[in-house]
C-alpha cells in the first residue's frame, strides 16, 4: 500500500512536472510571440517615421530650391523697379528741361515780335 501511494505520488509529481514544463514552454512561446508582435509594431512605426523623414527631406530641398529661385526673381524685380524709377526721374528731368526751353523760346519769340513791331513802326513813320 505504501509503495502504491509512493508510485501514485511520484506519478502525480511527474504529471505536474510535465504540466508545468508544458505551461513554461507555452508561456515562453507566448512571450516570444508577444515580443515579436511588439517589435513588428515598433518596426512599422519606425519604418513609417523613416518614410516620413525622407519625404520631409525631399520637401525641404524642394522648398530651398524654390526659395532660392524666388530670391533671384525678387532681386531681378527690384532691379527692374529701380531702373523704372530712374527712367521716371530722367523723364521728369527732360520734362523740366523742355519747359525751361519752351519758356526761353517764348521769351525769344516775344522779344523778336517786339523788335519786328518796332521796325515796322519805324519804317512806316
Automatic annotation (TrEMBL):
The chain's coiled-coil residues are 2-29
Is Ribonucleoprotein among this UniProt entry's keywords? no
GO biological process terms, alphabetically, are: endosomal transport
Spell out the reaction equation it catalyses: L-lysyl-[protein] + acetyl-CoA = N(6)-acetyl-L-lysyl-[protein] + CoA + H(+)
Pfam families, from UniProt?
GCN5L1 (PF06320)
Keywords annotated in UniProt? Coiled coil
Q: Which InterPro entries match?
A: BLOC1S1
Question: Is Coiled coil included in the keywords of this UniProt record?
Answer: yes
One GO cellular component term of this record is: BLOC-1 complex
Q: Which family does it belong to?
A: Belongs to the BLOC1S1 family.
> By what name is this protein known?
Biogenesis of lysosome-related organelles complex 1 subunit 1
To which species is this protein native?
Scleropages formosus (Asian bonytongue)
What gene is this protein a product of? BLOC1S1
Amino acid at each position: 500500500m505504501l509503495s502504491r501511494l509512493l508510485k501514485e505520488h511520484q506519478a502525480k509529481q511527474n504529471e505536474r512536472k510535465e504540466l508545468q514544463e508544458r505551461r513554461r514552454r507555452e508561456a515562453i512561446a507566448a512571450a516570444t510571440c508577444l515580443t515579436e508582435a511588439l517589435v513588428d509594431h515598433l518596426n512599422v512605426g519606425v519604418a513609417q517615421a523613416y518614410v516620413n523623414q525622407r519625404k520631409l527631406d525631399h520637401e525641404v530641398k524642394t522648398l530651398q530650391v524654390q526659395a532660392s529661385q524666388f530670391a533671384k526673381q525678387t532681386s531681378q524685380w527690384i532691379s527692374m523697379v529701380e531702373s523704372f524709377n530712374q527712367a521716371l526721374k530722367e523723364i521728369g528731368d527732360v520734362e523740366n528741361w523742355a519747359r525751361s526751353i519752351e519758356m526761353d523760346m517764348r521769351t525769344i519769340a516775344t522779344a523778336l515780335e517786339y523788335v519786328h513791331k518796332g521796325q515796322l513802326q519805324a519804317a512806316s513813320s
